[in-house]
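Extended Data, panel c. Modelled sequence:
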Amino acid sequence: MVKETLRFELELKECEIILVDDEGQEKTYMLKELTGKDRNKYLNKMTSRVKVGPNGKAMGIKSFDGMQSDLLKVSMFHESGEPVTVDEIESLPASTQQKLFDKAQELSGLDNAPDTEKND
């Protein structure tokens, strides 16, 4: 009989983010992994955006408004620990928002990428 063991660190993952404004001023933020409960809330909100056809199959997205900021507002924080506001997120350049969104998805296992970390 082969026994398999899975080992997981239960500390939420974090990633420091430094944004530099037009004047060279740096601001530090933290992207944090969501808890299972927060991930489920986010996924339920995303599900409500899906346009369903008469056959019951997904046909597309109803609205893209706030799609990235919905995830970032629950996973991105100022150094003080305060969450970043939707207005702050949506004022960022689109390319920056996309990179932050991609990283937030990765941290919370929402990117559908295979897990490459070893759990030994």
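The chain has one domain: 14-107. This feature is highlighted in the accompanying rendering.
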